[in-house]
Amino acid sequence: MLDFDTAQDRLIQAAVRPTRSERIPLKAALGRVLANTVQATIDIPPADNSAMDGYAIRFSDYQPNQGLAIQQRCYAGDIPQALQPGQAIRLFTGSLMPAGADTVVMQEHCSEENNVVVIEKAPKKGANVRYRGEDMSQDKTIILKGKTINSGHIAILASQGITDIDVYPIPKIGILTTGDELTEPGQPLKEGQIYNSNAPMLAALVQQLNAEVHLSLHAKDSLEDIQTALTTLSQECDLVLTVGGVSVGDKDLVKPAIEKLGGEVNLWKVRMKPGKPVTLANLGSTPIVGLPGNPVSSFAVFVLMVSPMIRVLQGRRHATPRVLYGKLDSNTVFSGSREEFLRVQARPDLDGFLYLTPHPQQGSAIINSLAWCTGLARIPADQPVGLGATVAYYDLKHWAH
Ligand code: AMP
Ligand code: MG
What angle do CA 87, 90, 91 make, to 5 degrees? Predict the structure, then answer.
């Protein structure tokens, strides 16, 4: 048996970072992974400017209750004159700072009459000025390669006048579900059958990670069917996920199928619940991960062990997202010889702790627990834990995105 962390690490090692990149318009960049570190080519802001609607003055000209003649009104986009001694220039947010001015007094602290401004509250020297380059300065790194582009990055890139960026290609994921008992939603459900829910669930998880399901196939429990599907999938995809058929039953044909095709298969009993059997294989250079068929196991193994592989394939900086901590909020004492990942709902409370409530049904076939949970709580092996115990918490907002 392998422990969870070792199994996770081995899967991560089996994924290869991208070497190619492609140029795309900034408009299409949300969720993509930056392939080249970006430096600022211009200072942002490009010039000192006002952070407020108000009046630009020389701080040394300020005297309580003494009026300053207004030399000019300068709107954002205008070029100001140099400030004359003893005068003020009316400014607005984003107006350029006039040469000679060092302070902006906000208009709420002033009164204006007959083109003269009286400052009613003592200003602070240098107040309300946004300085050239204080946000981004020319030639400095502004975004590291490997970052997943969010709306903030889009703003940074646009502020630099950038229209196109280099990103890594989107990895192509292949899915192969197996099982004679499975039928597709939309078909009538015959006796003994269940609908294939794992294929759409995994496709949704892949989509959430900003990867792409290139092809999703279903094979009957037959060696030929599975071999044919695997051949196509491994040729066309960067990573293939198989579902079911990897245990020790008579109809568990995924391992023999890969071996017949010349692939090497590692079948691991991972000391975790749900999801004990996990396989890692390859056909050619394509890694294949065998997920358990039970929906909860499939979900958990994908979130905990496959999502890190996909992040590597995407070129993202961190394969494993942050693990949080929370306190168990349940009167049940959990204990077992395998580590257990419970489906829990996390609730932040006023005391600053996250409270984790386990779903009442923790069976590996309980599909309704998947929609309900916000993440997975990690229960240690051979160490009973109960109410109030602090445990690691894998939040889906991090681990499934
Ligand atoms: P297996 O590993 O093939 O023995 O499957 C374990 C359990 O998961 C069985 O109850 C299967 O019916 C179920 N199962 C396997 N694949 C799927 C799937 N794609 N969708 C829903 N349930 C599945
Ligand atoms: Mg099966």
Answer: 130
